[in-house]
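thread from #wetlab-drylab

HS: before we spend reagent money on co-crystallization trials with adenosine monophosphate, can we at least see a predicted complex? here's what I'd submit
DV: go for it
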Amino acid sequence: MGIKVLKTCTELQSHVRKLKSANNTIGMVPTMGALHAGHLSLVKYAIEVTDETIVTIFVNPTQFAEGEDLDKYPKTFEADLEKLAYLNVPTVFAPSNDEMYPPGCSTRIVPADVSRPLEGEFRPTHFGGVVTIVLKLLNLTGADKAFFGQKDFQQVMVVKQMVADLNLATEIVACPIVRESDGLALSSRNVYLSKDERVRSLALRKTLGHFKKMISLGERDAQALMSEMQQMLIDNGVSSIDYAVVANPNSLQAYDQIEFPVVALIAARVGATRLIDNCLIESG
Ligand code: AMP
């Protein structure tokens, strides 16, 4: 059977009703399209652990601020469908902007406190848009499980907190970061990188590798680690750094002295392209 592409909320809701009445568990993978192996790893996992996978493709305007890349965000819809069909994904939900935000749709969700630092500082309206669309998609799909990538580390925390705070029944499943063979975390935005920038983009994974090594050698001074990370990013050619921090992965609070678990999180620009990456270390 071919892949079913649903465009309206009504179609999706009636499809979900049928699935639920046949006692299927539903897995949702929300994406903005331009699918790569990172997205597909979430899809494969969803297929493995739920009965029916629904992949959503929607470039959500409310999570982009003025001046960000909403208009030029890569769109590869036909290729996306081919990749999903190859994995035997039964259903894709690909609504229009008007379908998700019809005239008069003005309710917005306020994201939890954990959205404030890091990404929240540099993209203050971003997580409000994320939690609003994720809640809408969870309501529409009635998903038992929803799958997110650890690459967007803070996003997973913000979504999990929303699910807890609003008593939603969906389980949020975090999946590991998928990387290119040279270590660059896959991202739809990597297509913006010129050849030279692609080389310089390795600064992020080199810096995270260095962080890991310093921890394994016994460095526990958070300030020293963060200074080294900043320096390494600059030495390896990033254009600017939004943040390069080490923090408690359960709260995003800074450590003075590193304890475990610990996460290093980076957001930096290479040319005009903003890249994020992180490295979680569970124990010393
Ligand atoms: P996006 O289309 O960028 O909104 O991403 C959709 C989902 O795919 C999010 O949960 C991302 O965290 C996840 N994702 C993006 N890149 C990767 C990657 N390299 N590895 C794992 N998951 C990813």
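DV: The mean pLDDT is 98.
HS: ok that's useful, forwarding to the group
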